[in-house]
Amino acid sequence: MLPTIVLVGRPNVGKSTLFNRLTKSRDALVADLPGLTRDRHYGRGIGGDKPFLVVDTGGFEPLVDSGILKEMAKQTLLAIDEADVVIFMVDGRNGLAPQDKVIADRLRKSQRPVLLAVNKTEGMQRAIVSAEFHELGLGDPLSISSAHGEGVRDLVELALADFPEPEPEEENDGSRTPKVAIVGRPNVGKSTLVNALLGQERVIAFDQPGTTRDSIHIDLERNGKHYTIIDTAGVRKRGKVFEAIEKFSVIKTIQAIEEANVAILVVDAQEGITEQDAHVAAYILEAGRALVVAINKWDGLKEDERDWIKREIDRKLQFLDFAKFHYISALRKKGLPELFTSVDGAYKAAMAKLSTPQLTRVLEDAIIQHQPPISKGIRPKLRYAHQGGSNPPIVVIHGNHVDGVKDSYKRYLEGVFRKAFQLTGTPLRVQFNQGA
Ligand code: GDP
Ligand code: GDP
């Protein structure tokens, strides 16, 4: 599980500035694909040796009890509940505000570990600035400047101190049981799909270990093959006497995607593609997971409605063009065998072994077709390629002046490798290595 750091504080203290600094993309993979909309409140943190998930809770107005601000406060409280560490930000230039005390009280009640960060302290006498914040009773205030990056590294290291370094990925040659996460926004039919796959209404599990953000793992056997289903819909009590007890948790969804080999993104054909669908899709892409898209509730749609949703998909999910789309009905158990054929295919592609000679030959052919464009008077020279990882497959290209390789050319190469090795269903990363 990725440790989750949640940024909390009143508006304007600098949360999103810190968030941006922590999540600055190291990989242009998802930089500007048409149709991609990212949720700028959740990101993969970088810097240091430990990856983490960072959540910007936006403006927390704990005293407002209606409307959109109340909804935001609810989301913030949910995020705090699911945090491994909370970074509580205050504004060192404005000094202690009454709202800070209210938030501090809430945080104390949550019993989550909290670090108190006094922001905007660049050029100030740190000890003096932070002194007044001792009164919040959340331990020693740490002075930082999100805008200038001062103290940020220490803050993150402290936040993650209790978490182990990630273990090096064990070699997976694709022979292990695939982990398949079923993800999507609420009410698209995830639970119905899980139940359809299991062939029965699932027995409700009592006393599931862990917190609300933990997904449930289920063994599934289909046609003699085993899968571990990661069910983000969670423990759900159905029927008259039961009601939905689980809230939609973005953190849970992201954690499940991180853990999975393949994600099944479930979308509701009767509702169309929403921003939240696109956000979940963007996480899958960012995490590099193999993907199959299930357009659910296909039953009962008229011809013109089907045309409409297909146009929606073309328009809003173009950036998923590497994945297979299936039109299914979880309720009527339609389209499930085909869906799993694509899951198998996507897993295989994600785990594909690509040899250096083969990769290099494909690279050479690609260069003959199209040379890398000249950049600043110099043409990048690409010499050979080797595989740098799986799930997603990473192709590392060695050469000279590789900094000058344009994004469009990188995308061209991605397409060439994808086609040559039939990598349908998985993101593919092409990276460059200078001078080796
Ligand atoms: P949020 O509402 O908590 O997400 O706050 P923002 O990140 O949007 O920042 C609010 C304002 O504070 C912006 O004008 C930022 O440029 C400014 N700001 C953020 N961090 C710093 C900092 O470290 N020093 C200074 N001087 N200003 C900062
Ligand atoms: P979840 O929140 O994503 O787990 O969604 P549920 O599985 O609880 O489904 C939400 C609603 O959509 C329920 O009323 C389901 O009966 C309904 N539903 C799920 N799959 C289908 C489907 O394939 N067709 C139709 N018509 N309804 C469906």
From TrEMBL:
GTP 2 binds at residues 184-191, 231-235, 296-299. Residues 3-167, 178-351 form the EngA-type G domain. GO terms for molecular function: GTP binding; ribosome binding. Keywords: GTP-binding, Nucleotide-binding, Repeat, Ribosome biogenesis. GTP 1 binds at residues 9-16, 56-60, 119-122. One of its GO terms (biological process) is ribosome biogenesis. Associates with the 50S ribosomal subunit. GTPase that plays an essential role in the late steps of ribosome biogenesis. Belongs to the TRAFAC class TrmE-Era-EngA-EngB-Septin-like GTPase superfamily. EngA (Der) GTPase family. This is GTPase Der. It comes from Methylovorus glucosotrophus (strain SIP3-4).
